[in-house]
């Protein structure tokens, strides 16, 4: 970089690139030093030896000891990636993304290159990828394409103690492949001490314990039960903030979900504003599954001097993510948990008391870097007498249709004798088989049909995949995959700012005019957006979420990273593209039938007929097959219309059991489309119209 001027020697200003490079270098060096301070580090060589000596290893270590971020790197450094990838599963997608981002920084590589992540509908990996973080559900799907996981040299089933449905199924599958792939290393890692159970299951695999560095945690219980735990949590957080030195440590509050966290955030903002400048700054950091990535990074930023951070988190902060600097934990004692009624096949998310194991994980989060304090917003009596010891594994409280379909397409037929760590209730297995049979995915012998084989290709719930497969018959696959994509976005499509709710609602209702359901409204939104050539401006005008408020570059403790998270419409487009690819794979032609709304509704019904409901005199609905009272969700375009018969996408329990995403239906269709499931008597309404007035049982309807 010599000067071009002859005779005089000018020295150039160092180009900014170099500056950035040297900054990056020092950041990199700092990260390498940090890695060496983790509890895991002194055991690096011992661990590598143990992995070398044993095919299967159970690893136990306190949250934050470095299991997730370090072990895959150690194995890479030891050469395991020469033979294949190292895959590490996470129960939550936020954790998979965030950990991959962290590890890519530690390795000084671009996220998505050597280190990547894979979550449903979002594959951030490349041919270069050697360390792959993924959700447990994604690894399960990879089995479908590669039953021996040949591209992996190591599989680490991380957060095994969470016992999610996918993790439990993975246990059975990976245990099986270790038998015929002696070169594959399998690591099962867990944050809790029930490692014996994992070891027993994996034929007495040795347990590698990483001694924790836990500081004492003082536990406080309330004297009496709290009627309003949210308010109690907020008051406690403020009390800590006001009475304790800010440099002293941050606060972590466990709440149950996004809505609760947003409410708490608002109240906290309001109350701290009320206290004015008399108190130090309180930085509020929410973290939950649907939080856009660039906002997630905020929780890892170091707290500025003189301020305090309060992290409002779901269960995700229990063991999946480690936030440094927490001294105070506030634990109201609840989480949102799935429960399933195998009789009706209905699934609901309920706010449920946590287990003792969870409570202890939560309190442990305060004693990582120094002595901590945990405020339990329940009584000591509650803790000792009312809380269960452990959380019931998800496999015992969920709908199994999805995994049964996956297992069937892996050729595993004898589900009752599958090697489950804890078997699901036989009733739930039967229910899943029954549903798959009703959807024509299985035949009477329980064997996968052609329909079932096609359905299994889609990373969707069986009813959604059935809807897509059925669209072939009704020649509307083009429309149906748009609907499926819109339903799969996760999070709201609609933007409803507090000061413009009326405008937003009017805009939303525009998509419902002349419409007969929320599904077709979603389709209309998608098609209109497509017509504008995917214009972001159009989204703003119509109060549709185009993307999250995008700051492309965000600060994390270690420098700038670029994480772009496209949400809502852009995500829908992405998902739709993927579904279009899968259509091709199952050889369903992309055909459009946009003028025939009935055809589209029939395809929806072909997937969702088990979710049909009939209007009652009082404006409520009654589900047809397993009668239960339900209501149309107020956000639905049909909430005021109240059609006589509807199909719904899902039930959500808030103040009532609500149907969300509802479409009108003709009752005859139920018998036409699912004659093996519904009989004429189930849909008497339609019969009555064809019968002479006053005849027979027809008078019973309305
Ligand atoms: P474990 O899996 O044993 O719970 P991790 O490997 O996840 O531990 O975490 C080790 C350390 O790495 C944590 O103490 C935390 O400081 C740091 N860390 C992990 N993820 C991130 C992230 N996304 N951003 C910043 N730091 C992180
Ligand atoms: Mg971890």
TrEMBL record:
GO terms for biological process: mRNA processing; RNA splicing. One of its GO terms (cellular component) is catalytic step 2 spliceosome. Keywords: ATP-binding, Helicase, Hydrolase, mRNA processing, mRNA splicing, Nucleotide-binding, Spliceosome. Transmembrane segments: none annotated. GO terms for molecular function: ATP binding; hydrolase activity; RNA binding; RNA helicase activity. Residues 234-411 form the Helicase C-terminal domain. Residues 48-211 form the Helicase ATP-binding domain. It is an enzyme of class 3 (hydrolase). It catalyses: ATP + H2O = ADP + phosphate + H(+). It comes from the Eukaryota. Its EC number is 3.6.4.13. Belongs to the DEAD box helicase family. DEAH subfamily. PRP2 sub-subfamily. This is RNA helicase.
